[in-house]
Amino acid sequence: MFSFNIHGVSVSNGIAIGKAHLISNALLEVVHYQLDSKETSKEIKRLSNAINDVKKDLLRIKKQLQKNSSEEFIAFIDTHLMILADKNLSEKTKKIISKDNCNAEWALKKQVDFFINKFEQIEDEYIKERKNDVIQVVERILKVLLGHPNQANQINNESSTILVAHDISPADALQFKKHQYAAFLTDMGGSTSHTAILARSLNIPSIVALQNARDLIKNNEKIIVDGDQGIVIVNPSEDILEEYQNRKNLWKIEQKKLAKIKNIQCKTLNNEKIELLANIEVPSDIESVKDNKASGIGLFRTEFLFMNRKELPDENEQFKIYKSVVKAMKNKTVVIRTLDSGADKLTSADTSISSNPALGLRAIRLCLLEPQLFNIQLKAILRASKFGKIKILIPMLSSLSELRQTKLLIERAKNSLDNKKILYDKKIKVGGMIEVPAVAINADMFAQELDFISIGTNDLIQYTLAIDRTDDRLSHLYNSLHPAILKLINLTIKAGRKYNKEVSICGEMAGDSKLTRLLLGMGLKHFSMHPSRILTVKKQVLNSNIQKLKPLSAKILKTKESNNIETLIQKINQ
Amino acid sequence: MIKKKIKIINKLGLHARASSKLTQLACNFSSEIFLVLNKNKVNVKSIMEVLMLAASQNTIVLIEANGPDEKKAISEIEKLFNNFFGENE
User: Fold this and answer.
1) Which positions in chain B touch A314 (Cβ < 8 Å)?
2) I want to staple A199 with a disulfide (CB 3.0 to 4.6 A). Which of A141, A206, A452, B16 is the partner?
3) Helix (H) or strand (E) holding A134
4) Separation in Å, CA of B15 to nearest CA in chain A
5) Residues of B with CB below 8 A from A83's CB?
6) Mean pLDDT score, A157-178
7) Are residues A345 and A492 in the same domain?
8) Is residue A404 part of a domain?
9) Is A254 part of any domain?
10) Of the candidates A182, A213, A247, which is a domain's last residue?
């Protein structure tokens, strides 16, 4: 057994050591057998039994879901049950078995291929996607036929099992939530995939985009998942294993220590209050926001409400979600960012995909082009503002005219609520994201017209350095300590100070405890990050004296080389 | 046999949830029920066939029902179409 590493994209931090549990892609396993014509009736019976087993299984899942899940998920299982009952699947497959004298698996694959082909010819992108539902149902039947039904259910509840799959479907995700996996690894996916969201909500490490990990890793092989660096170590040597065991223990001890500072007020040594806020994606993230004692929500990414679903959420649905979040947060701030995805993520909008989506029609650009869609979201946010302290955040501004247009649309949304005598917070604050370099350079102009500013460092780095964040081959060039990036952040913080407007950072940099002191020294007072990062950053804040950090921060801002900057960062953290 | 033309008025057309509801309803009747669009004729009792018809908003489809409860089947299906498949729009 030789040891090797596989690199992927880390979507949830932490370290896990355990045995691999492979979830197969049943369609790829199917092989062809010729049967004796006398055996076909037995084979047909085998298929019927398998379909019946899957039906029982789906009904069982549905029953469990009815207790505590949204209708959305139940409707999803219903569609699967109907596909399962469809004669086009069962009866036609049976006909293939008797006509071709082949095994049930092969006949089923042949029939599903026929459907996939037909679905592929559909022009409506959304209906075309439904082929995945058919595939998922067929996968379930195949797994029963192949003798490994519902692998997720079969595993023991040992907490050191690591799930290795090609991809995780939403239905799988629901199942996996109940089992205590130590980590998730998938060949596919990005930071917004089901896998990523699920792993973060369970607080276990996860690495995605591993390409062919499922082929390279064998079942029950020992693996280390380093979710901090995005590395999977297969069959580690004793030395490596020991080192990671130590790191894992240290991590646990560190977590325990951090828990102790939860209830301490977040102040620096020189008595400056610092606000640590949380970034959330779905309302269920609030649990971890409260658990880590965030002082509010600095970024609610609403695009997740629009993804992975069949229709766009209407005003009432959005209103209910925003209201539930703001009520759960009591009187703490909730910054709601308006839709920040591209047209490709929306079900009914224009789905033409540009060759460079990061620079394309997305975020506020899309919202201004689709004012109806935007109006629905604005009205929903405004209505929820009656129930707490909501602020509106506009993503991806690149010019003042966009900001003015947006404000006009907000006024219109307010007017239409006034006409209906619906109450809302009339003084609701409107802030802007600074992520396009053009805006950072002119931060003082924007600061005059905005109520608050939030720096989105992930996109700011991508746009300033002209590096595609999703291209692995460029990842060595993606550098948050590039002098130009620090300069733009500094310009923005200064502009906020000049016009007395709050400035926060809500990108990855805010949650990186190595950078906390530098940012404090630059004058940042508000940090918004993934809830799991809050306590680590808080520890840094509690041990820092801003007055003492200022000279070194100023020196870092004058440094020309990233390498030298890194040396100085080490110094500032001592 | 009864035939009737119906216009699809809901925004997303025969998308997944609408198709599910249509198939569910159709399965309650003993009559054979078909949906015809262009040259395609599909069995309404099959979710996959209905989905693959990919009928969008404002298309006019022909519904055919043949059997003892054909009258009721057509009127109930028409109601479902005109009720935006029970979704809020």
Assistant:
1) 88
2) A206
3) helix A131-145
4) 6
5) 47-48
6) 70
7) yes
8) yes
9) no
10) A247
ipTM: 0.85
Residues A306 and A159 in one domain: no
Residue A494 lies inside a defined structural domain of this protein? yes
Does one domain contain both A168 and A226? yes
pLDDT digits (tens, 9 = 90+) for A275-323: 999 999 888 888 889 989 999 999 999 987 887 566 788 999 999 999 9
Q: What is the mean pLDDT of residues A343-365?
A: 66
Calculate ∠ Cα A248-A296-A407, nearest 5°: 130
pLDDT-derived band at A466 (thresholds 50, 70, 90) equals very high
Q: Spell out the residues 6+ positions from residue A490 whose beta carbon is closer than 8 angstroms to its own.
A: A522, A557
Domain contains A258:
no
Choose one of A127, A145, A163: the last residue of a domain.
A145
Instruction: Give the global pTM.
Output: 0.63
Stretch among A86-90, A177-181, A272-276, A419-423 having the lowest mean pLDDT: A177-181
Q: By residue range, what is the domain housing residue A223?
A: 4-24+151-247
Q: Is B89 within the bounds of a domain?
A: no
Q: What is the DSSP string of A24-82?
A: P-HHHH----B--GGGHHHHHHHHHHHHHHHHHHHHHHHHHHHHHS-HHHHHHHHHHHH
Out of B15, B40, B59, B84, the active site residue is: B15
For B19, the domain range is 2-84
* Encoded tokens for B77: 């299906």
Q: A87 and B46 in contact by Cβ < 8 A?
A: yes
Name the active-site residue from A194, A266, A367, A530.
A194
Report yes or no on B59 lying in a domain. Answer: yes
Per-residue pLDDT tens for A368-423? 998 999 999 999 999 999 999 999 999 999 999 999 999 999 999 999 999 999 99
Contact criterion met (CB < 8 Å) for A79 and B20: yes
Same domain, residue pair A207 and A225: yes
pLDDT at A539 over 90: yes
Query: What is the least distance, in Å, from the CA of B27 to any CA of chain A?
Result: 11
Phi-psi map region of A183: left, alpha, beta (phi>0 left; psi -120 to 50 alpha): beta
Q: Is the pLDDT of residue A44 over 70?
A: yes
